[in-house]
Amino acid sequence: MINRVLIRIKVVQLLYSYLLTDNQFMLESQPSAPTKEKRFAYNLYLDMLMLMVKISERIEKKGGYRPLDDTRFIKKILADEKLKSLQLKYRHDMFPMQNLVDELAEAVKESGVFKNFLKDSKEGQFEDDKIWENLFDLIIIPNPTLNAYFSKRENFTLRGIERMRDMIKGTFTHFYASRDNIDDALRTLAISMSKARELYFRLLVLPVELTNLRELQIDENRKKYVPTSEDLNPNMRFVENALVNAIRNDDEVINFVEQNNISWIDEDRHLLESLLKEILSSEIYDDYINFPATDFHTDCEFWRNIFKHIIFNNEDFIEALETKSVYWNDDLDIIGTFLLKTLKRYDEINERGVGHAVLPMYKDQEDANFGKRLFSDVVRNKDVYRRYIDDSIVSEKWDSERLAFMDVVITMTALSEIVNFPKIPLVVSMNEYIEIAKSYSTSKSGAFVNGLLYSISNRMAEEGKIFKKLS
Prior knowledge:
mainly alpha
């Protein structure tokens, strides 16, 4: 019921607000009025970070994959200008701790910390935030060869070593803060999905509640002091609709409505009365009531037409949905198509005599995990994806001022899907996010995102990062 089109939209919307307020991660700054000890500590601090980078580059698995090089901490520190400058420096000058890299990389590789990290990664537990702090505290800093090196470094003091360790600790603390509240964001994403499911059932039970309201009106009309012949002998086709009766007796609908206390008539009777009045005065209703005979198929088509031409176009109804949940602003179009599909399924099941009309929340487990994987990967690799975007803007000589932040978010999400979901054809991913850009960003965003994705996907293919091609 919740398809990937809706999931993509929800992920992009959540990422936009999440990344807009993302705490910026920065390394410690050069101390003011530095003494020899402070200079020693700060330079050693930067070199220790570079040492971790060197270790991450040295540990490879089959196929040349570097699991530690792919962690969020390494990507974060490498995105900082201070470490970028240091990398450039050590391309020409020898890294002072180069002779320690192999020994420390081997110690890390044989450690339980690293082996547990590999096991968790293999089992799909992608939380890698703590790995480098654990490696630093348990494997790197206690290493005797490293400590012997410290004592030989110019301006060495034990207090300087403590300063360095405090700065490393502060860097980890700042790194964790930069993670923001990804768990909270993922919970918000899950809530958004569950609210889409609720909207589906709310729409499904709406014909039942409208029919119940009409039955109440008929009963009240019969009790009038001076009832008319129509009051005493009303046309009951509307309230005896076979589809409505099938929905009313569907256990899945009953259980969801009861568990979630859904009742249109209790929550907004005025809206229900307004909808019913519009339905009863419509040509769709007149044609249905005056039709010589009806069957289950006719009853289904009646409600499909009521939804398509009346309910989904009723401004008061749409406004009421937006008032009930902020998550429903963009859900109605997609969930509405699934509602119409479900009504048709009731018709098909009535003919076959077997089956379930209510759609499952997700097609399969892969779809159930799709949104979480997509969101988490963009957060983890946003610096990498952003570099691809910035490089493409420079190489293609595009106007950087055209780069709306929503375009950045949409492009990063598309890149994440292209890289991490090889079964989804490249053209499908590109088209889906181009459409999102057209709907949720500027008037020129569709063409701009198209150009970015085309340029970056070609570069990724050349680098061997993806193996998809535009057909």
